[in-house]
Amino acid sequence: MSLLTNYTDPSFIKIAQYVFKEQFKMDPQLYEEMNERRQKAMYDDVVYNISFLMTAIQFEDKDIFEHYAVWLYELLTHLMPDLDRDRIMQQMIDHYMILSKTLMMTDLLTDSEKELAQAYLKAASEVTRAAVTNVAVSTSFEEGPFYEYRRDYLDALLCSDIERAHELIQNAYHDGISIPIIYESILKKTMHEIGVLWHQNDITVDREHFATSVTQNVMAKFYDDIFQMPRKNHTLVSCTIGDELHELGIRMLSDLFEYDGWDTFYLGSSLSQDSILSAIDTHKPDVLALSVTMPPYLGICEAVINQVRTKYPTLNIAVGGQAFSYTDRLWERWPVDFYSTDARTTIAWANDSVDDVGGGASE
């Protein structure tokens, strides 16, 4: 071994300092992410990384550095919870690339040692990339059919692999899984798990928003098929309440109503009460669906419902959203007709209500 683990050796220090400075040149965003304390810790990590690499080369044992790379990555995700797992992965892969190029230029390693260094650093990059998806999932996420589809889709979201995410869901569709099942059993459950991972501090809010955006685009791929379904001459108006920005669930519900043959008017979020009443007057729906995710908006929801019920006493009103799961069956104390946690049950109720007893804003 030509480069001994003497961390005070000027040649060793020179390599560590060069790699450290090169990474900041390559990725200026690090200046925003790394305060003085983190920068010092990062330099120490560079020294440790080189020492572990040299040990692996000395014994010609790739596993030493691979195991260390995974351990280091998981450690950094806990030490820097404000950074996404994907972002930390990219930092480490950049680091291994810079270190590989640097060691190739030094005369402190023999040619055979340089070959080992390149191979071990490449392996470290691969196991680090794979570790991005190494997160424990909840029991509820694992339960039920189509888990493999959910898990693969979750992994694609965690790895920022947009193309793979689209491909997985399209493959599910071509495998014969219906749009309602894809929405309810794959997309909805995966996005709920994304929320769980955020709550556990395993991912950042940026990752949660990214996953939402990708899933909305994935859903949009089905619109041609959704809007080709036979019409039932029934109408749904749907929206979130107040300044609620969690609108993916109610958008899924609206899509599945449309797929069932309803004409849907999804109003989005941040609507005033007057705007909701105006939409009801314009579209004269058979069903109004309201969604609340954050409990502070429950009061606004109640006020909207009371206004709607006063002006449209026969209109069928359904509520849903995570906020209601925190309550003691609050919906039973409100003048609403239905509450459910899933779209299929809500659609079945809506069809029965309209077909059996009529109702709607026009009556």
TrEMBL record:
Organism domain of life: Bacteria
PROSITE patterns: B12_BINDING
A GO molecular-function annotation: metal ion binding
InterPro entries for this protein: Cbl-bd_cap (IPR003759), Cobalamin-bd (IPR006158), Cobalamin-bd_sf (IPR036724), Meth_synthase_dom (IPR036594)
Gene3D superfamilies: Cobalamin-binding domain (3.40.50.280), Methionine synthase domain (1.10.1240.10)
Residues of the B12-binding domain: 233-363
Protein name as it appears in the record: Methanogenic corrinoid protein MtbC1
Source organism (scientific name): Pelagirhabdus alkalitolerans
Lineage: Bacteria, Bacillati, Bacillota, Bacilli, Bacillales
